Amino acid sequence: MTSMTVRKPNRALDLLTDLIQQYVKTNPKSANENKRACKVMPAGNTRAVFVYQPFPLVMYFAGMFGHSHPSIKHALEEATKTGFNLGAPSKKEIELAEAITSRFPSMDMVQFCTSGTEANTLAIAVGLNYSKRKKVVVFENGYHGNTLSFKRPNALRLPHEFILAPYNDIAGTHQILQPDVGVIIVEPMQGAGGMVPASRAFLSFLREQATKLGAILIFDEVVTARTHYHGLQGYYNIIPDMTTIGKFYGGGLPFGAYGGRREIMDTLDSRAINSLHHSGTWHNNIFTMSAGLAAVELLSARNIEKANQLGTQLREGLDVVFNVSRPDTAVVRGFGSLVGVHFLGPDSDALRDAFYFFLLTRKIYVGHRGFLCLSIVHKEEHIQAVLEAVKEFCRAAFPKSTM
């Protein structure tokens, strides 16, 4: 007599299988575009976070300002009338620099570039040059761009002398700090690392240690600059030596910037002998400068606070939904307008994927990693729609749920 292995029911996996079948059936155009893309791009994409099975949804993504904000659209239309790239400094470049330095307490001066990755790369180099040292403290699960990712082993990583420290761990970080550290770079809230805010105590500790060691403290606010008018450095009143920003301060166009104390940034003054040479054809392109100026106006304290309030409402609502349906199923993290849902337990991956595909059936698009980022055009009705959809998801994923 032979024994047969009976498959133990797995609700999360079965739900995911059904959802993927439905997804494939309803998105044939995206499937075809992915097949086409895979012939000319590895995995059919140039952003690894958009690579998932069976294929990514092909669409236009909304950022901090929604899909096509009229103010940014108008700024770009006006830019087409003045010349695309004049090959010289422009008034808009000065205006955007003035607007940005007026917001961030750490930025006496600023330099533009074309991405957050580039901003962090340059800020580290400038900081090491100023401190005359070579070692850089970074944090586990940190992400400062393609070449500065510390989530896993990465052959694309820049060849600096990195010291990997535990995030949000004062004692653990203190143990590995060394007197010859030249730069400490940290996200006040880890974005790609899971929407994990740093504690005020941890950031204060880093500020104290950087001062004590004579190291340059860099806040990577490429993600967190959207959460407070003065960035999280302003919210916590903990001022780094340098700051990097990107994304939305370019109005959705390719943009990055780094800035800091005047004496640090003066090392980039090309009028001086032996200065650092920062240059780039597209750093001050008229489209980004114009869109950036429109973005600065849109990112008013009022609009930021409105998005933050909706984010808080969404986090608190999701917390209730998950805890009522099945406690210890998910953790909801984030700050301001940024929300991260992290599923727990052995079925966490299946639940994460099912969550993503289920919300798509309700016409709600979130980051595949469980990220929900609110924009200035979102309203309370959108928050309620998400919460209702998540209640439906919980009923489907956890049949005994009372939601």
TrEMBL record:
Its cofactor is pyridoxal 5'-phosphate. The keyword Hydrolase does not apply. One of its GO terms (molecular function) is transaminase activity. Signal peptide: none annotated. It holds the Pfam family Aminotran_3. The keyword NAD does not apply. Keywords: Pyridoxal phosphate. InterPro entries: Aminotrans_3 (IPR005814), PyrdxlP-dep_Trfase (IPR015424), PyrdxlP-dep_Trfase_major (IPR015421), PyrdxlP-dep_Trfase_small (IPR015422). Belongs to the class-III pyridoxal-phosphate-dependent aminotransferase family. This is Aminotransferase class-III. The lineage of its organism: Eukaryota, Fungi, Dikarya, Ascomycota, Pezizomycotina.
